[in-house]
Amino acid sequence: MKIAGLKCRICGKEFPAEPVYTCDNCFGPLEVLYNWDFIAENVSREKIENGPRSIWRYADFLPVENVEPIDLGAGFTRFIKAENLGEELGLKNLYLIDDSTNPTYSFKDRVVSVAVTKAVEFGMKAVGCASTGNLAGSLAAHAAKAKLPAYIFVPEGIERNKIVQALVHGAKIIEVEGTYDDANRLATEIAEENPDWGFVNINLRPYYAEGSKTLAYETVEHLGWATPDQVIVPMASGALLCAIHRGFEDLERVDLIEENDVVFNGAQPYGLPISKAVKYGKGIEPVRRLETIVHSLAIGNPADGIFAKEIIEKSSGFAEDPVDEESIEAVKLLAKTEGIFTELAGGVTIAALKRLVEDGRIDSSDVVVAYLTGNGLKTTEGIVDHLPGTVKIKPRLEEFEKVIA
Ligand SMILES: Cc1ncc(COP(=O)(O)O)c(C=O)c1O
Ligand SMILES: [Zn+2]
Predict the structure, then answer these.
(1) Can you give the residue range of the structural domain that contains 356?
(2) Hey, which of 101, 268, 301, 334 would disulfide with 275, CB 3.0 to 4.6 Å?
(3) CATH no. for residue 240?
(4) Residue 166 placed within a domain
């Protein structure tokens, strides 16, 4: 058996692999505990390379047993050597993973595919989540595939396209007057009342978070079974950064890679708790007012904040906190150099990368991987006013010639 149980990330107390997520001893969050000997015996580079072109090529590392995955094709997205952007930023070995091409256009398909599969395995009657936007669309789509009703809690004011995307799959969208943190608190209360509903980022969170480890596996596989020198990860709750870190550790544990000393850098919009804590040397202090237009990363009370901070600091990385204008410019820079239209979270990531290079924290020859986690068509509201307008003319050649002149 691959799964050994769950374990508290604070005090280490162990639990059976059930839909539980907090420790009854210290209230710490739980994570999945694996039988590493079993996994090491079963996994190999060849097996992975011959697997499906999705996250499920790494099934040996995912917390699912004896059930067919709910699979829309998440993962194994484009791995790009970004020569043009690298030249602009002064990096010779810059790589991007472009998760804007996932089935619902964000990295959330990786976590949701695992969590909804787990909900089916547990025989749950419905699924739900609290979302800053991308999770909503992904959960709605996977719930449709799994034939489960979905209850999705979002803060008011998130992008229209994200709501439309979730609604089209038939999910019930509850817009909560307040921030993401308010929506999350309410969803948590509802999850407590309804133990046979699988709230993917609440009571299924230990399993859900594991899906993002696949970004580390893909990075290593695409680099010819080598690790990068540095990574840049966008942060909201910090779960993604922690999962990528666990992914590299897993590969080392089963000897699929020899060394693992990846430097972790986080990217979060200005004023949010994780980047603030790392950059200005403080503890994680929750923020109530969220001023950024980067709604997908706007979490004021980040569940994985302390763990993300610890990983960044232990690996000698850093966190950057670009302001919205920088992130918008970075979206445009990426689009003009690499032909990729990323959402504002990707802008935060590229803007943070730019700062890290300018401050000498990343060397020009370092092998760097930046994770682009969402699609620009979802956040057009934030960018449209920063683009030149169209040119309107009558359908006549001389009119066009006037424009060119
Ligand atoms: C596009 C995008 N990137 C990154 C993140 C960061 O996620 P996490 O909460 O795991 O830090 C999110 C979270 O919603 C997101 O939507
Ligand atoms: Zn504990």
Answers:
(1) 88-103+209-386
(2) 268
(3) 3.40.50.1100
(4) no
Distance CA 177, CA 55 (A): 35
Contact between 355 and 322 under an 8 Å Cβ cutoff? The reply is: yes
pLDDT of residue 18: 95
Q: With a 6 A CB cut-off, is 349 part of the ligand 1 pocket?
A: no
Q: How far is the CA of 304 from the centre of ligand 2 (A)?
A: 15
Ligand 2 centroid – CA 314 distance (Å): 22
Q: Probe ligand 1: pick from 99, 104, 108, max atoms within 8 Å of CB?
A: 108
Strand, helix or coil at 369? strand
The reply to whether 286 falls in a domain is yes
Q: How far is the CA of 225 from the centre of ligand 2 (A)?
A: 35
Q: Is residue 225 part of a domain?
A: yes
The number of domains in the chain is 1
> Do 334 and 238 touch, CB atoms closer than 8 A?
no
Which atom belonging to ligand 1 lies closest to the Cα atom of 240?
Answer: 10
Query: Residue 168: what residue type?
Result: V
pLDDT digits (tens, 9 = 90+) for 36-85: 999 999 999 999 999 999 999 999 999 999 899 999 999 999 999 999 99
Is residue 150 included in any domain, yes or no?
no
Residue range 275-298: average pLDDT?
A: 94
Least confident stretch, 72-76, 157-161, 253-257, 393-397 = 157-161
- Span 118-172, pLDDT tens digits: 999 999 999 999 999 999 999 999 999 999 999 999 999 899 999 999 999 999 9
237 CB within 6 A, ligand 1: yes
Supply the residue whose CA is at minimum distance from atom 3 of ligand 1.
373
Q: Helix or strand or coil: residue 175? A: strand
